Description:
Layout: H1 3-21, E1 37-38, H2 39-47, H3 54-63, E2 69-71, E3 77-80, E4 93-94, E5 100-106, H4 110-116, E6 126-128, H5 132-140, E7 145-151, H6 152-157, E8 163-164, E9 170-172, E10 180-184
Antiparallel strand pairs: 1-3, 2-3, 4-8, 5-7, 6-9, 7-10, 8-9
Bound molecules: ligand HQG.
Amino acid sequence: MKRGNRGSLDHISKFLSMILRHHPETIGIQLDEHGWADVEALIKGIQKTRPFDRYMLEEIVRTDNKQRYSFSEDKTRIRANQGHSLSVDVELSVVEPPEILYHGTGEKFVESIDRTGLLPKGRLYVHLSADTDTAVQVGKRHGQPVVYRVFGKRMREDGFVFYRSVNGVWLTKEVPVKYLEKICK
Ligand code: HQG
């Protein structure tokens, strides 16, 4: 694929995550309770804003660097695998967390996090990763990155529930301060 096309698909992918996680009404569609959008309606809706077709949608889903989207088995519906602000149930698997998980954030949030712990803010869950590299990348989206160690196993023992999305993101509702430790600045 030509570079220009890839760039344009990346741009549309961002638009797609905005629609499928936060604002489906932007293109006049709705998500069902499990976060699914009708593929035909989605394509028609996006076509009102830019050139778009099923081939491009399939390319985005297939090549997305974080595997953000899934088609239903019959490919008539599509949803984001995680990251929603809308209250949908994407049928996340409840899983035993590893002893340590990581959360990357920006320096500007540290004072507040150290006071109140990690909160989901604009999303349904706090997003965690199993490795520090991913956490650093996520943190960089918010400026100077800071990474926290999250004591997953201890939280689980204390009754907190962890999920993992089909694209491998660890999720939990909140992380109180006592399960957090800063590991780099
Ligand atoms: C911070 C991307 C102040 C939190 C990534 C984060 C991820 C607090 C920010 C996914 C706080 C919310 C999610 C508190 C948490 N006080 N700030 N008490 N508790 N925060 O973007 O985790 O590319 O909603 O640390 O890869 O950065 O979109 O969450 O910095 O997986 O697929 O509030 O988004 O994936 O920011 O990123 P976000 P996030 P995609």
